[in-house]
Amino acid sequence: MRAVVCYRGARLFHHLLARIVTGVRGIESNTVRLPISITEQELLAEIQLMNSAPSVDGLLVQLPVPQHIRERVVCDAVAPQKDVDGFHILNIGRFCVDEKSFMPATPAAVMEIIRRSGVETFGKNAVVCGRSKNVGLPIAMFLHGDASHGNYGGDATTTICHRHTPPEQLKLFTKSADIVITATGVPKLITADMVKEGVVIIDVGITRVPHPHDPGKTVLVGDVDFEGVSQKASLITPVPGGVGPVTVAMLMKNTLLAYTKEIKFPLHN
Ligand SMILES: Nc1nc(=O)c2c([nH]1)NC[C@@H]1CN(c3ccc(C(=O)N[C@@H](CCC(=O)O)C(=O)O)cc3)C=[N+]21
Prior knowledge:
Blueprint: E1 2-6, H1 11-20, E2 28-31, H2 40-51, E3 58-61, H3 71-77, H4 89-96, H5 105-116, E4 125-129, H6 136-144, E5 157-161, H7 167-175, E6 179-182, E7 200-203, E8 207-210, E9 218-221, H8 226-229, E10 235-236, H9 243-260
Parallel strand pairs: 1-2, 1-3, 4-5, 4-6, 6-7, 7-10
Antiparallel strand pairs: 8-9
Helix pairs in contact: 5-6, 5-9
Residues 12, 60-63, 85, 105-106, 206, 220, 239-241, 244-245, 247-248 line the site of 5,10-Methenyltetrahydrofolate.
Domain Tetrahydrofolate dehydrogenase/cyclohydrolase catalytic: 26-85
GO molecular function: methenyltetrahydrofolate cyclohydrolase activity; methylenetetrahydrofolate dehydrogenase (NAD+) activity; methylenetetrahydrofolate dehydrogenase (NADP+) activity
Pfam family, one: THF_DHG_CYH_C
């Protein structure tokens, strides 16, 4: 099996793939680093090369792409049957209508954490902070979805808050939430006064901030004031060491699915 990552800065993925997956043959991964000045056409040609290589089971293009390149065009250039990110428009569309597809890794990681922790979502109030197409939106799709349609349907009453939700409104929603999932990149967006006792908190934020004591160094922080909120939460994921590593695991799961070709393309035939 061979997975190819075509992106800038795929160090972590590459590293974990090599170390964690040890099947009979394992997953081999390869990082292709391309210059920031690459044209859209040249990038599409690189993708085409991997699309048609029988030795490549899955590939992804690390986002964000440079400003002069159209992200949607790039995501749709990846062969849908090799689209381990689940970002091809066909996989997104199939996901939205409960057909088998490659699930985006970060949202799948959130649901995997919820499921494996035994958190009840059925009929509960869930609040998603952030509406990005690759993270916030699919998380909300999962949470509100119908479990009887397969996949990860959470059957939760789901509210999506975003940059235009006034702070006092956000607090009203998070206060009444059983589950808060935040993916905004705003450190300390969620504080203890905003949540109820026993709340489940999944922190998907990843922001690099200057190290508090060591100038020149940076640390990774989430969207949640962990110190305060962890006093009230029944379950809370840290950053780092929470959703991130599970995301990498979900990417490997998708790579295995691409290899076994369990997800059929095209759908109808
Ligand atoms: N096409 C594409 N697909 C992606 O899935 C994608 C992407 N582009 N662009 C960037 C974001 C970000 N992302 C992360 C995955 C794992 C960790 C992770 O495991 N982080 C560790 C910490 C790593 C560290 O300390 O540097 C943790 O949270 O514990 C972080 C970030 C995937 N992304």
